[in-house]
Every structure is written in C-alpha cells, then in structure tokens.
Write a structure and sequence with these properties.
alpha/beta; about 45% helix; about 290 residues; eight-stranded mixed β-barrel
C-alpha cells in the first residue's frame, strides 16, 4: 500500500534525494525515525509540527502503530519517497512525496530593531501563559520560581545561564560559550530541555543578525564539536539549527505573530520542547 507524505521541508527533500539505504532508528507513538547512519528523517502523524527533518503523513497515531514497524527494519530510499520493509514479514510500506507540500524552513533574514523589540515582548507574554514546566519556569517573570521549587536540572540550568550572562557582560565570550554549552544533553525526554534551549539560542542569533558576534561564533563551534555528547534525535535538530534550518513555528516568528499565536504554536511541540526553544530565543535576543 502506498501512503502520501503531506508536508516536508526543502531541507528534508534534499536529504531524501541523496539517500539509498537505511534502517528504522526508533519508533514512538507519533513518530518513526529513519536513518542511514548519519542523517535522520522523522515520519510523523498528521497535524504534527513541521521540523526541518519532518515527513508529515496523513496517518493517525493508531494508523502508525498498525504499520507494525520496529527499530532495525530496513528502509530503501527513493527520489520521491521511501519503502519500509518490516522484519515481521508483512507487506512493504511505501511512502511517496510526489504531491507533498514543501516548506522553506531556512531562517535567512534578521529582524530590524523595532521588530525585535516587539518579538521580545510577545515571546515574554507567551511564556507567561506556559504551564509546560521546563525552562519556561525560569523565564516566566510573572511567576519566578525560587531554587527550592526547581528540579535539579533547572537549578543546574539556571546556574549555567546566570554564569554565562556575567561572562558576556565582562566580554569573556569564549568562557561564556563554554559555560552555556554545558546545557547540551541536560534534561530528559526525546530532546533534552538544554538542547531545545540551545536551538533557540542559535535561532536568536539569526533573528538579531548577530551570527558574527564572538560569543555566537564560539557557541556554534562548540555545539558542532559536541553533537555526539547528546542523543541522536536532538543532535539532528542542533545540526539543522547550525545550518539555519528550524521548525515552522520558529520561522513563523519572522511574521511577528501575537503572543497567543506564539503560545499555541510552540506549546504544540513536544511536552516542553517548544517552550524550551522559545526561552532560548528570548535569552539570545536579550543578551546578544
């Protein structure tokens, strides 16, 4: 049976064109991750938030489960899609991208100062609505948490961020980057909160046009060097961020959406992944 991929990015399409054979990396309720050993693409259910590596299908979570796909199943990539051969010997699952809608998720332009100021205000207001936990707890100015209310992960994150702030203030940019990179791999889940925050920081460099700032250069170099220090899926998103490729909610911030729209779109990304990323964007816009 052939299934239609409804949405993907030009970035994911380019990856598909250069792959031949691979395997199923991992399987979750709403996602099947595919890999050739170096690149990862994520087959996702309908209405999933679009990331640079997403292949959004028309399937529900139940439909995805019925495919009976397991890690290690072989995958054959084609120019316009891919075929999954299940180890259980059931019929091959073929997916096509021939009629998919493509999105450009390249964050290629900076915002001017008045727009950046408006975006900062809207992001801060959006985070005040967040009840997701994660880094939003640290950045919600209306409900600032004391250390005794925080998890050990958030206490560590808060310490690294505050130390980084001080080092940036003293223009000790290399030391500041070395401090903030300690967030890499910090947290639990499919993508640790620290990694999501760092993705947001990298996006913030682009929004503010500060990719040439000494701190930005040091942090990007450290991130690229240490991708192996976190889990594969998270490393894939950070690799995309280093190339200027971000999720659709992040790229949509260029249009200066309202605080309510920001809250809605980012809250739909994982349990706290979206708001953790939003915190990174806010921090980057404020400090760099």
């Amino acid at each position: 049976m052939e299934y239609q991929i409804k949405q993907l990015s030009y970035y994911a399409e380019n990856i598909l064109k250069h792959l031949s054979f691979g395997t199923v990396h991992s399987v979750y309720r709403r996602t099947i991750n595919l890999t050739d050993g170096s690149q990862i693409l994520s087959l996702q259910t309908d209405h999933s938030p679009l990331s640079p590596i997403s292949l959004v299908s028309g399937l529900t979570a139940s439909d995805l489960e019925m495919l009976s796909v397991t890690p290690g199943d072989s995958v054959r990539f084609q120019k316009d899609g891919f075929i999954i051969n299940t180890a259980k010997g059931t019929a091959c699952k073929q997916f096509t991208c021939k009629d998919s809608r493509r999105y450009d998720l390249d964050l290629s332009r900076a915002l001017k100062a008045p727009s950046r100021s408006a975006l900062i205000t809207n992001i801060q207001e959006a985070l005040s609505l967040a009840k997701t936990g994660g880094f939003a707890t640290l950045f919600n100015s209306q409900n600032a948490a004391e250390d005794f209310d925080l998890s050990l992960v958030l206490i560590a994150a808060k310490s690294y961020i505050l130390d980084c702030n001080e080092l940036i203030h003293c223009r000790r940019y290399q030391e500041a980057a070395s401090k903030l990179i300690r967030l890499l791999g910090l947290g639990t889940g499919l993508t640790p909160s620290g990694d999501d925050f760092l993705c947001g920081v990298l996006a913030g460099f682009l929004f503010s046009g500060s990719t040439g700032h000494p701190f930005a250069k040091h942090l990007k170099d450290l991130t690229a060097d240490r991708l192996a220090d976190t889990i594969d899926i998270s490393a894939a998103f950070l690799s995309c961020a280093l190339k200027g490729q971000f999720s659709l909610p992040v790229v949509s911030l260029l249009n200066l959406p309202t605080a309510e729209d920001i809250f809605t779109s980012f809250s739909a990304v994982g349990h706290s992944s979206g708001t953790d990323t939003l915190c990174g964007i806010l921090w980057s816009l404020r400090h760099i």
